[in-house]
Write a structure and sequence with these properties.
The strands form four sheets. Strands 8-7-9-10-11-14-15 form a seven-stranded mixed sheet, sandwiched between helices. A three-stranded mixed sheet has the order 1-3-2. With 409 residues, it is of the alpha/beta class. The protein contains twelve helices and 15 strands. The protein starts with a helix and ends in a 19-residue tail after the last strand.
Length: 409
């Protein structure tokens, strides 16, 4: 009886192991991917947007024939766990997905911080991860070989503003004023601006730090008034953007071009009305862009389909998350294999266009083919909207430049 019980226990253990491995492997006609996503906690809203983007792409790909490997069609499936908006928890869940569930292909979480927590786990286990919501530049300086990001990195956020200012100046360098928060993200943004200044022969005439509370940039604006730079760039999240608009208007500071992160027409105009007009805001994606693919069409098509599915327009987090699944499909089909090393090598050679933008990875896994978007806040009859003005090739509206002086507005 003792031997019988021992045999049953061993058999149960083996069944658990094999069921776990079978669950994760390509089983029947299904490819299973894993994802730790913030479904609760401070990132829950954006975590839900991330999951919605994944699910919409899964549905579309599966409806359109799935993934073709070795002459057979396979469907995608995702196993989710809630990381509770906590990096430590996310790392534990990544371990669970890989070592208990046997997942061989990963999707990223929401936020740079949680992506940073998961990346060492996937790297150590040599599990490819396509992530869509971690923009921190530091993700691409660790030498990771299994991490691939479809979104533009933080250092790219305001590079496009410098390029646009130079373009508007006949290709000649411009004089730049910049004010940045001291957080890691904004400092990554600053690195990109400094690099763009060097590349274009531009001069940085003001280099200021925003105060910790992000509630007063009068000292910087006084310098702007005196030195008259060609462009002012600001990165201080939403509060910093709102402070900039308020004080530019209060102090009647004229600047030919204003570009910021974390701003959009709705937030700016709600608090400051038409004072926000002509500001340039950096974004990962906008529905009016004319990028196309065979699954979602263009951005307007994606916007329509997403709104029909979820009852509200897609934020960029959803769009980039959907793009991640298109990258996985493309890589599996080019690899024509489920071997993780062959699939990883196929991911590294990605060069494609999606409705979200062009995707091509550097040796560090950074997307080097998709520039950031700049939209300009434009107001009509008290209603302000976003109009894409850069990169010029993808613009839906011509930029108003220079910004009219306060006396002319």
């Amino acid at each position: 009886m003792r031997n019988f019980k021992l045999s049953i226990a061993l058999l149960s253990g083996l069944l658990l192991v094999f069921s776990s491995l079978a669950f994760a492997k390509v089983e029947g006609d299904t490819i299973t991917l894993g994802a730790a996503v913030s479904l609760t906690g401070k990132y829950s809203t954006n975590g839900k947007n991330t999951k919605n983007g994944y699910e919409l792409a899964i549905k579309r790909i599966n409806e359109m024939g799935g993934v073709k490997v070795g002459g057979k069609s396979y469907k995608f499936k995702i196993v989710y766990y809630d990381d509770e908006s906590n990096g430590g928890r996310a790392a534990q869940l990544a371990e669970r997905l890989i070592k208990q569930d046997g997942i061989k292909y990963m999707l990223g979480p929401y936020s740079s911080g949680i992506t940073k927590a998961i990346a060492p786990v996937t790297e150590e286990n040599k599990i490819p991860m396509v992530e869509a919501n971690g923009a921190s530049r530091s993700l691409f300086t660790k030498g990771y070989k299994y991490l691939f990001a479809v979104l533009s990195a933080a250092n790219q956020y305001l590079e496009v503003a410098i390029d646009l200012a130079v373009e508007r100046n006949g290709g000649k360098g411009v004089r730049i004023a910049m004010a940045f928060e001291q957080d890691a993200f904004s400092q990554d943004v600053k690195i990109g601006v400094v690099e763009a200044a060097k590349r274009t022969g531009s001069e940085i005439v003001i280099d200021d730090n925003l105060p910790k509370e992000l509630n007063d940039m009068a000292a910087t604006l006084a310098k702007v008034k005196a030195l008259k730079p060609d462009v002012l760039v600001v990165s201080g999240h939403t509060k910093g953007a709102l402070t900039a608009i308020r004080q530019l208007a209060d102090m009647r500071v004229n600047v030919p071009m204003l570009a910021m992160t974390h701003c959009d027409a709705g937030k700016l105009s709600k608090q400051h009305g038409e004072k926000a007009e002509y500001a340039l805001c950096a974004a990962q994606w906008h529905k009016s862009l004319t990028y196309k693919d065979n699954f979602f069409g263009n951005g307007m098509d994606y916007d329509r389909d997403y709104t029909a599915e979820y009852g509200s327009p897609p934020p960029y987090q959803s769009a980039e998350s959907s793009a991640a699944l298109l990258v996985w499909k493309d890589a599996f089909e080019r690899a024509n294999s489920f071997d993780t090393e062959k699939v990883r090598d196929a991911l590294a050679k990605t060069n494609m266009q999606t409705f979200y933008g062009n995707i091509k990875f550097s040796d560090t896994g950074q997307n080097i083919a998709k520039p950031m978007v700049l939209f300009q806040v434009r107001c009509d009859g008290g209603k302000c909207t976003n109009k894409v003005v850069a990169p010029t090739k993808w613009a839906s509206t011509k930029i108003v430049h220079p910004i009219p002086s306060w006396s002319q507005r």
